[in-house]
Write a structure and sequence with these properties.
- The chain has 2 helices and 7 strands.
- Helix content is 14%, strand content 28%.
- It is globular, with a radius of gyration of 17 Å.
- The two termini are 22 Å apart.
- Strand 1 (63-64) and strand 2 (67-72) form a beta hairpin.
- It is of the alpha+beta class.
Length: 134
């Protein structure tokens, strides 16, 4: 095929294509209970339990319905990352403060996960050499 082939991997799971503005609207709707009622949100944003009844804690503190759930500096923090070849994203929700940070990146050379030793979110380059401008 001549030229650049079409991007077939530029959507998320279930072919979701979104913008920062779309994600902001979705996040606002979650905070205002427009998408889910309080009972559903409570279930989604509470760590799931394993078969013995203990909270799942192997995923940076807690896990439920795709969300990692932690206490950070005394505040409930809910986050999820995504990515593929050429893409990275993260949404971090500071639940009680109703404040979120949404980052979208068109590079796969960053690792958004929190540092397990300091419990701080960092964007760490995964390339050994810097990306050269075209």
């Amino acid at each position: 095929m001549a030229g650049n082939p079409p991007l077939s991997e530029d959507t998320g799971a279930a072919n979701v294509l979104s913008s920062l503005e779309d994600l902001k609207k979705w996040d606002d709707a979650l905070y205002s209970n427009q998408l889910l009622g309080e009972e559903a949100q409570s279930a989604i944003f509470t760590p799931a339990l394993d078969s013995s009844g203990k909270p799942l804690t192997e995923f940076w503190g807690g896990y439920s319905y795709g969300w990692m759930i932690q206490e950070r500096r005394g505040a409930k923090t809910i986050w999820h990352t995504g990515g593929d070849a050429g893409f990275r994203s993260i949404i971090v929700r500071f639940y009680e403060q109703q404040f979120s940070v949404i980052l979208l990146c068109n590079s796969s050379s960053l690792d958004w996960r929190p540092d397990s030793h300091t419990s701080q979110f960092t964007a760490k380059p995964t390339r050994k050499s810097p990306i050269q401008p075209i």
